[in-house]
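Recap for those who missed Tuesday's class. We walked through two folding examples back to back. For each one, the amino acid string is listed first and its predicted structure tokens come directly after. Nothing is annotated here on purpose, so try labeling regions yourself before you check the end of the notes.
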Amino acid sequence: MRYPQGGGLTDAERAGRERVRLQAVAAFEAGEKSREIAAALRVSERSVKRWRRQWREEGLAGVASKGSPGRPRLSETQIARLERELERGPLAHGWDDQRWTLGRVKTMIGRLFHVSYTVEGTWRLLRRYGWSWQQPARRAIERDDDAVELWRREVWPRVRAPRRLNNAWVVFEDEAGQSMTPPRARTWGRQGTTPVVRVRGRGSGRVSMAGMTCYKPGERPRLIYAIREYRGRKDEPKGFGWKDYRDLIIRARIQLGGPIVLVWDNLRMHLVAPLREFFEVNAVWLTVFQLPTYAPDLNPQEGIWSLVKRGIGNLAAADLSQITRAVKRRLKMLQYRPEVIDGYLAGAGLSMALSPDRRCDENVRPLTSPGMAASSPCLC
């Protein structure tokens, strides 16, 4: 049996503990003090005192180990099967939602192995084998995991092709927004009383954010962003238009001082005709790749937005300007933390390290949307 999380003992370990207790009994009979016994046996003085009390009340039988109450009643093969069934999810076993509870796992064990566990015993079993109560990540049902893996395996090596990256930056772009209602964040509170965060019920508006995480081998990663406020006024744009994206790309090229390999998602505004024309005209310094559909985990900029929103959690904003200032402050701080920006690239499962045995197929052009011409030929 294996016990990666502790809580269970092998037969050899149990025999060793039994020997320690017998040595403690011999010391009790010799009249030694608890502190001396604890130091000699390398156990806590509290344990020695407990053993002494049990020895006085029940004799040698009171000191003897009762065994491990948390030892699993399932075999190694049954545990492996249980883990496989849990990984399939509750939907595969007839429940309406995708949430494993202790009661449901307890029921699963009874169905599969006809073994009865208590709720507390189920908790101990799951903890012992590396399971914990977690906040799940959301993922779109429409997502094609095979397409995502294909992009990571086949397209990403072309994005960071050796000859291209001699003078070009790989730039990941993404957008986010924040309303007057701040994200909820955990806080300390008195047990039995739910903490209350008071926010403004009135007022409208939204802060739109567009950001770029920029990478190049041998260079410090950069973060470039643009902020726009929407206050609900007449004829005021609600978000970024194609001209805003064009200007952001041009600004990135000026700040980075070199060609750009742009990687972004399939947002409708990214695919409009004026932007396609802009890409074709500037194909000398701009190459565009598109991410698979419903694959935000491939974009390091998504991690930046998550960190920004976590930083403004429970913010009691008086007006939209305060939200804007808080967002800008967080983004400005991240610009001076290149190790964080670099970490989100690794978190996406991507690396700027060049593989010497990998060669780009010259007949394959960068990914584009249907009907959209490639921005530039492959530069490998």
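Example two. Treat it independently of the first, because the proteins are unrelated.
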Amino acid sequence: MPGTTATVQDFVPYATAAIDFHRALNIPAGPLVASRAELDSLHAHLVSLHELLDAHTRRTSPLLPAEGDHLRAARTRLWQAADHLHAAYHSSPRPGSGDVPDRDACRTRLPEGAPELTICRRHLETARLLRRRITPADLRSPFTGLVRR
């Protein structure tokens, strides 16, 4: 990697390979629908990607505004994807009972008891940080990036 020291390791390609490996091994032979555990894991992954892009956006934007705009748009889209995964989690039946909880139940912080509250806690914590950097209009806008040349 040009411009990095020998001790710096880029782990993103390994994360990508792990996801590809998971898909190749589990999806063709797996159940027809995603499990709640997998939705929770995917949500955690998207939140981590969101945090990584947030860090890159905050560092890049002052130096290269056009690149920062694209990173900001990608960060917003990742949050929207994480929000949809959170909704999918709450739309899927609970293991054991098959009941589908109300999406608003996660605001109580214990919609289904531990350990299922981890996705809601993670989602709410990220949403709190998100409100500091993204306006509600940004989240509803069909286009989240400026065009700079």
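Answers for example two:
The two ends are 28 Å apart (CA to CA).
The mean pLDDT is 80.
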